[in-house]
Amino acid sequence: MIEVRNLVKIYSSKKNKVIGVDNVSLTIKNGEIFGIVGYSGAGKSTLLRCLNLLERPTSGQVIIDGVDLTTLNKKELRQARLKIGMIFQNFHLVSSKTVFENVAFALKAAKKSKEEIEKRVNELLEMVGLTDKRDAYPSQLSGGQKQRVGIARALANEPTVLLCDEATSALDPSTTKSILALLKKINRELGITIVLITHEMEVVKDICDRIAVMQNGKVIELGTVYDIFTNPKEELTKSFIHSVLQFELPDHLLKKRTGTIIKIQFKGEMAEEAVVSDMLQTFKVKGNILHGKIEYIQDMPLGIFIMELTGEPDEVQRAIDYISARTNGLEVIASAA
Amino acid sequence: MLLDSLINLVPELNKAFLETLYMVAISLSVAIIAGLPLGILLFVTDRGLFLENTTVKSILGFVVNMIRSIPFVILLVGLLPLTKLITGTTIGPTAASVSLSVAATPFFARIVETSLREIDKGVIEAAVAVGATPWMIIKDVLLPEARPGIVHGITITTISLVGYSAMAGIVGGGGIGDLAIRFGYYRYDNTVMITTIVILICLVQMIQFAGDRIARLVDKR
Question: Which residues form the ABC transporter domain (chain A) (predicted)?
Fold first, then answer.
């Protein structure tokens, strides 16, 4: 379990003070994938780097598995870091060392014997699917392969926590998917808690259990991914989610329509029910679906439809009320002309 | 006539060439043995690095700058007491090697520091995050990553030392440069002058060529 208590990080120079992290407290449960989202400069990277004390907090505590890292001396901190893996956006591999040597470095830090290192590196390379690249140098690898080496290095000493600093931001979409699948596999099979920061909502949607949204050094919203996606409260969160669940209709299309245009959102089980067809059978209205999408977030469906309803105004109103009562959200985008 | 004077010159040239090699070899060895750790120390005690120590950094930086700001001719004479203390004499190539070593060490240290600075900070950070000790980071990350740069630094230092060693004549150090000045300049002997210059050009070209080759060999990136 990771507990962050009243964490503050201030960068002070002679002239001014910049607040990186502003009094953040949060708890990350064992075995969960926790996402920290925010625009660049929001403090998410600083917060992550405080978790293994790459950045020393100005004040506050970071408690991992019951140990307050801020109280440790240098040697104890090194020991603690063996159990906290970290991967980076730009991989940060030692370019003059082979894949094997890069991974072996982490084991050397844990003072493992030559035989143990040999055995463990081979295991790790097999897990990340790079057995054949054992003796290659980083310059001979693709971005995805480099990140796999980074993951192998981070997992070498069987950590309980894996910190991911924009781990997929430098990768193309299909490589991103495969790296995310690998992270998910690691989380499931090894039970490692993963904390990742990203500005890509797609990443969050794919693998996170819970997320924290950061702005100006503060956590402004925190919750399960599903709750945040279906019911975002802050403007910033909404704009982030908008980037994934885009439902804008082209203007020219809206202008041509004569009926009432509504946007319906279904959550969970309701997305699988036939609310719309029931409505069409009960009321004398015609429905025309303009846009629709069901997203699966954490395997739970979130459906969004944009429909045009035509008919007698009274009937349309009653149809809208009917749907309103049975779904989580109904928004009238444009009333009948 | 020209050939005759050249043949007469061979023993002198031979001796001078060996003296140059001798002085350069000694001072280069000292520069590497002392300058490498000094350069590493200058780097790792810098702000934001894993052995950050402003006091050590500023003292070392000051000493290095101080030595580097003294013209070599003055250093050569000024260090005579130290030379006497170490070698028991103030003349000859061994004596000259003392001042050459003192001049070359901070020079090489700065080059080492600069090549370490070229390393991506993230790579060092990743090593810190893994839980590695400072010694491991120096040995397994910094030195391998900076190896091509350090080899280039050795090449540059060697060539500078060949140049500096010419001034060793002032304390009777000998060497090719000294020969050029004594015979070529003071005695207006153009044959000696040109021959020594040709030898020096060849020597420097060879050092540079060998240095480049080695740097390429150790560059795994």
Answer: 2-241
